[in-house]
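Aim 2, interim progress. The first record below pairs a target sequence with its structure tokens.
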Amino acid sequence: MKTTYRWVDEDHSVLALAERLRAVPNYAIDTEFHREKTYFPQLALIQIRVEDDTYLLDAPHLSASAVADLFKNSAVAIVHAAQQDLEILSLACGAKPELIFDTQIAAGFIGYSTPSLASLVQRELEISLPKGDRLTDWLRRPLTSDQCSYAASDVEHLHDLYRVISLQLQELQRESWALDACAELVKRPTQPVDPAMAWLRMKDARTLKPKSRGVAQSVAQWREERAQKLDVPVRQVLPDLALLGISQKSPQNHDELSQCRGVDGRHLKGTIASEILAAVNRGREVTAEFPVNDVEDFDRDLRPAATLISAWISEVAGKTSIETALLATRADIIDYLRGNSHARLRIGWRAEIIGSDLDDLREGTAGISFDGKGGLRLVRAAPEENFEH
């Protein structure tokens, strides 16, 4: 059966919906967007389900202020894998839900590993979601009935998932952990890339020698700013291969630029070549280094400890049926070992689960051994012993 919905393409209807959201404890939301042909993602559709009603909001025909009004409430937004949705809503209208329940994150506390919405609905609700075209053009108007029904189905079962997952979290006494993890997602930055740091995202950036890094930073910054100005993907301004070639060769004139790998005729026309060469010249005066807190630059003498802690965290995650990546990433481990008092492993629910174990491991008052059953166990030293021999 196809999901029924209401099509919304006028601001006054959005404002009426916003008023309704202020009177309910929660609502389900999802978005459809494109970012293949532009620098900034293009919001195409917002799906919202309130109680038994589903609304499809025609985002390109609505004002940013009207859409932003949807999030001026204290209701919990029920979402699934919402990182990109939050980013796009923030960029499109300057607002996003501030209280969320992400079913993918929450499922990570009851034994799932980053499940898709379809697999979660199938396993928890025994319902098969309709299959849609992965390459659907959501900006096309009018959308077909099948497209609309498929989009509406993305929010149809989120309330039921919220209920069944919340019950399991309550039984496990993990509801507060899941809500804290969801709050972390809301707090993640949603701003565009800082052009001055764009070079770090370049493929093979770490192969560059020190004298090439300043050029890479400068040219990548020019590329990012031009892509933002024209609203086109950075690869259309200058592909990574060309950026790498320019950084390595540091060309001083048009002929040298034309010989850089990855550079083609479109980069040599008009003012583009002169802009690239100007960026190269600026880059020669810059000393660019990788961030000191970068995971790859992790202190060599602490790497064995990181490996040991990583093994223990994986063991704990398996035994407690918590998604390992939720419990700790490698960056979290490094942050902890560097002594950051605000490291995620030192505070909140993570510290509650493994904080004392990690402290004992680091201080040498505990060690790890095999448990004889294919797993690991923590072995604590007697008061007069330690594991630093």
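The second target in this work package is listed in the same format:
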Amino acid sequence: MNQIATALATADKADPELVAAVVRAALDRAGVGIARSVLLFLSTDFAHMAHAAVVAASRAAHCLQVTGCTAPGVFTEEDWVLDRPAACAMVFGGDCSLAAHPAADAPLLTLAAPNAVGGSWLQSGGPRYGLLSTDNSAHGAGRIWCHGKMATEGRGETAIAGAHAAIGVSRGMHILSQPQPATSNGRDVLKAGAHPALNALLRELPVALREMEKLPFHLLAAGVVAGDPQRAIEEGRYTLVPIIAASHDERSVTLAMPLEPGAQVFWAMRQPQAAASDMRRLVDELDSRLGATPDFGLLFSCLGRGPYFFDGEDRDLAAVKARYPGMPLIGAYGGGQIAPLFDGNRQVHNTVVLALFAAHATDGGARAHV
């Protein structure tokens, strides 16, 4: 039996009692008195009292399996909250729960501080999805708890037992060009195809941006293709590398990381309309992969992709709510996300990671379609 529900609340100041009240409200909506486990996301206002907040949640739920983190913003299917003390919880009271000992191939809900994401750890286990827990600057570490205990190493993982999952990522970029061979000197791209790199980039930008005294580098990226450039964009076989500078004298473009010899690159730009369209595509894709109506979902977004990006509206959250009205959904905004991409688990930014779950008989961990 699927007994899962969420609750969200805000207050003028952070207080563990607000956390307890949210858990009790979620229990009431789920129609259960005791939770098997709880997902708990708190605004960064709770960072200095994280342990007390987790204890309050555990007592209200009558269970020790409480997992979650602090983040700059939190949300459920009900609403989103930024820049104000807030708490949200998803309680599991039926056949689905958070697994203390996930199956070897189970997709891992992963929460980590920015300084605790090591490459070997990130690639260990099955596919990982989740959030970088940060402070409001999106750079400093947040607080993380897993199975009722504070994560002293700054990272934690769990899995959803009793459900199968479809997990994906929306990178939300407007693709400006097709892949072309790049001539580079370390991080400096000198040519894209036969043209100077800056000329090639400017040719693809909207006129208003092209004529700016300084390019909006925070919106621009180079897509570095993996393998055959044919259908690489459609198949998601690329890495987005931020553009950090341009030289008008040398007509070159500088990237945040060096290119390998023979790399193929294309230009891309962050754009709200493209991001909203890509999110709708992701929802359609995961719905098809899941093969069933989802019972609940988890969504992790970036501070650079949420309401700040969409002029006060979270169109990513709205896309999921429109497709699945009333479906229990929980998530948070952070300084980055963890996503299973074509080349393994990666730390990404300015993206949305969505996981949809359909309940089945408990077998120790969710099976993934990624």
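The longest strand covers residues 238-247. This observation will shape the mutagenesis plan for the next reporting period.
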